[in-house]
UniProtKB/TrEMBL annotation:
Cellular component aspect of the GO annotation: membrane
Chief location: membrane
Keywords linked to the UniProt accession: Membrane, Transmembrane, Transmembrane helix
Record PANTHER family: HYDROPHOBIC PROTEIN LTI6B, HYDROPHOBIC PROTEIN RCI2 LOW TEMPERATURE AND SALT RESPONSIVE PROTEIN LTI6 -RELATED
Protein name as it appears in the record: Uncharacterized protein
Family: Belongs to the UPF0057 (PMP3) family.
Organism, as annotated: Salix dunnii
Residue intervals passing through the bilayer: 31-52, 58-81
Keyword Transmembrane recorded: yes
PROSITE patterns: UPF0057 (PS01309)
InterPro entries: PMP3 (IPR000612)
Location(s), subcellular: Membrane
Pfam families, A to Z: Pmp3
Length: 83
């Protein structure tokens, strides 16, 4: 992960719409992130970090599933590895 991505992720955790805005401008990603942040801070953070690190989407999905339940995380990890 480059230092630029690290800074973007840090900004996305502090203020999700700002991190997305600096990476993508005022496009659809920004407005979705802003709406999710208004509806709830945590959904805004999750979306912002996901959007900024799209290339590593499998990792983030697996992490989220593991946080929600260990077994779903294992199932998804095995699925991705064997895909």
């Amino acid at each position: 992960m480059s230092s630029s991505n690290f800074i973007d992720i840090l900004l996305a955790i502090i203020l999700p719409p700002l991190g997305v805005f600096l990476k993508f401008g005022c496009g659809a990603e920004f407005w979705i992130c802003l709406l999710l942040t208004i509806l709830g801070y945590i959904p805004g953070i999750i979306y912002a970090v996901y959007i900024i690190t799209k290339e590593q989407a499998e990792f983030w999905i697996c992490l989220l599933l593991t946080i929600l339940g260990y077994i779903p995380g294992i199932i998804y990890a095995v699925y991705i590895i064997t895909k």
